[in-house]
Amino acid sequence: MSRMGLQAATTMRELQSKLDVIGHNVANANTTGFKSQMSNFSSLLYQNIDNFSDERANSVGRVTPLGIRQGTGARIGHTNNNFSQGSLINTERALDIALTEERQFFEVSVTENGATETRFTRDGALYLQPTETGDSALVTSNGHAVLNQLGNPIIIAGGFDGVTLNEAGQVVIRRGNIENVEAEISVVEAIRPQFLEQTGQNLFRLPDVTEAGYTANEIIGQVGNVNVAVGRLESSNVDLSTQMTELIQTQRAYQFNARTISMHDQMQGLINQMR
């Protein structure tokens, strides 16, 4: 394959990855607390070819190197998470809470393949799940245990008459005519959110950051004064109009590169016939 065909094929592979990101965003447009992603491209190895014989005629007002830039395509340089605040929706449900600050998350416990890990979510639709001991655990819509400020699952002893949440993120239990705060939901702030990775199920995780010269405490910090909106949920921050525009542009770019390969094959066929 010629350089032109190689460049088109390489770019098409990366454009397909961007289409996957856009599709993931659109599919989660109605997911509570979902944060969209953005893909950014960068050029692969390239060289400048000086094909101008008259530099004076081509240098007036020019700010780029003389000649043409010939490369081997483009690739996705990095995919960033968009942590901007989504709009709040009133639900009037006692166990629905929404974070009102960007880059803040609830801590939950997730067990996969026998390993338990702390992960982070913006989804504040919480539920009570019965345990084997007759108590109730506070969990997310996916069944992951919500953690308290000590890093332990929030377990509510049986025999209660009501459970509510307040704006300080505290779990208020009513037993008879007496109400007591029996737990506080852990809320953390992503000091350097660029390190967080999406893991599916509307969750984020913190990878090993020691190679980057950081500790976990320098990436994630505990929020002291928690302030949440009770009876409300944060909607997804996906802007469908922007996603549709990105989709059309990416599809057109994919078609142009596919057409490049097709034209390259036709040219090769004509050359072979001339031989």
From TrEMBL:
Transmembrane segments: none annotated. SUPFAM superfamilies: Flagellar hook protein flgE (SSF117143). GO terms for biological process: bacterial-type flagellum-dependent swarming motility. It comes from the Bacteria. The keyword Kinase does not apply. Its main location: other. Residues 8-35 form the Flagellar basal body rod protein N-terminal domain. Residues 105-172 form the Flagellar hook protein FlgE/F/G-like D1 domain. Keywords: Bacterial flagellum, Cell projection, Cilium, Flagellum. GO terms for cellular component: bacterial-type flagellum basal body. InterPro entries: Flag_bb_rod_N (IPR001444), Flagellar_FlgE/F/G (IPR020013), Flg_bb/hook_C_dom (IPR010930), FlgE/F/G-like (IPR037925), LlgE_F_G-like_D1 (IPR053967). It is found in: Bacterial flagellum basal body. Residues 231-274 form the Flagellar basal-body/hook protein C-terminal domain. Pfam families: Flg_bb_rod, Flg_bbr_C, LlgE_F_G_D1. Belongs to the flagella basal body rod proteins family. This is Flagellar hook-basal body complex protein FlhP. The lineage of its organism: Bacteria, Bacillati, Bacillota, Bacilli, Bacillales. The gene is flhP.
